[in-house]
């Protein structure tokens, strides 16, 4: 069985978990306190980051290469289109959420509110929280624009781009940092993603000291 070293609210780990679940690959989840830099974990990934996946006898790190390996070795159901231009758009949006959204939103909200407390690194920086709360509005508006022109974020079919976005937003939704009333079309998109069987284990996550909001597990939020 595959084994994933992860942190429950990490959007990068969640992206890998969604890919594995969509492909119906059974996986053992192992929570890893990567910030403690345990020697065994550092041997698995000298970068000291999660996710780390053991699959097919290979130890893999970095979420996007992991997801692309899964796609290449288990191509059905497909999360990357066959057309090169469409694949480019999926990869562009995966980078958008894992780089730009992460830097401007996730790191300012989730990391300040949750990671600092868990890692015992002090209190949230209010200026970072304010910046993240402002930036997420821009990103939700951009998603609304995309979805106004497409069925899914990158085109007519659900793709890894949708999983990347949902991974970040679900982590933020756990701490009630997403204004779903800002865009009905984004809310409907998230409801579609959230109702997929692949999302079930995500919705079951619990972080000690951080209970999820009442709507978090509700598919009709």
Return the structural class.
alpha+beta
Number of strands: 4
The radius of gyration is 17 Å
Strand order of the largest sheet: 2-1-3-4
Specify the number of helices.
8
Shape: globular
CATH C-level class of the domain at 84-196: Mainly Alpha
How can the largest sheet be summarized? 4 strands, mixed
Helical percentage: 40-55%
Distance between the termini: 34 Å
Low-confidence stretches: none
Q: From N to C, what is the helix and strand string?
A: EHEHEEHHHHHH
- Strand % is 5-15%
Q: What integer is the average pLDDT?
A: 96
Q: Could you say what the CATH topology of the domain at 84-196 is called?
A: Glutathione S-transferase Yfyf (Class Pi), Chain A, domain 2
Return the CATH architecture of the domain at 84-196. Answer: Up-down Bundle
């Amino acid at each position: 069985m595959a084994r994933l070293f992860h942190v429950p609210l990490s959007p990068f780990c969640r992206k890998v978990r969604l890919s594995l679940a969509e492909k119906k690959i059974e996986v053992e989840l192992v929570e890893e306190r990567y910030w403690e830099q345990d020697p065994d974990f550092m041997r698995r990934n000298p970068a000291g980051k999660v996710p780390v996946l053991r699959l097919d006898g290979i130890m893999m790190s970095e979420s996007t290469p992991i997801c692309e390996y899964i796609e290449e070795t288990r191509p059905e159901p497909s999360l990357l289109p066959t057309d090169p231009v469409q694949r480019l758009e999926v990869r562009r949006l995966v980078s958008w959420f894992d780089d730009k959204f992460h830097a401007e939103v996730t790191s300012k909200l989730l990391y300040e509110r949750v990671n600092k407390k868990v890692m015992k690194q002090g209190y949230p920086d209010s200026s970072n929280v304010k910046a993240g709360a402002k930036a997420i509005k821009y990103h939700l508006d951009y998603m609304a624009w995309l979805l106004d022109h497409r069925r899914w974020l990158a085109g007519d079919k659900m793709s890894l781009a949708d999983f990347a976005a949902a991974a970040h937003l679900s982590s933020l939704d756990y701490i009630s940092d997403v204004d779903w009333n800002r865009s009905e079309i984004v809310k409907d998109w998230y409801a579609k993603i959230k109702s997929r069987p692949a999302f079930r284990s995500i919705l079951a996550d619990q972080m000690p000291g951080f209970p999820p909001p009442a709507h978090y597990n509700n598919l009709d939020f």
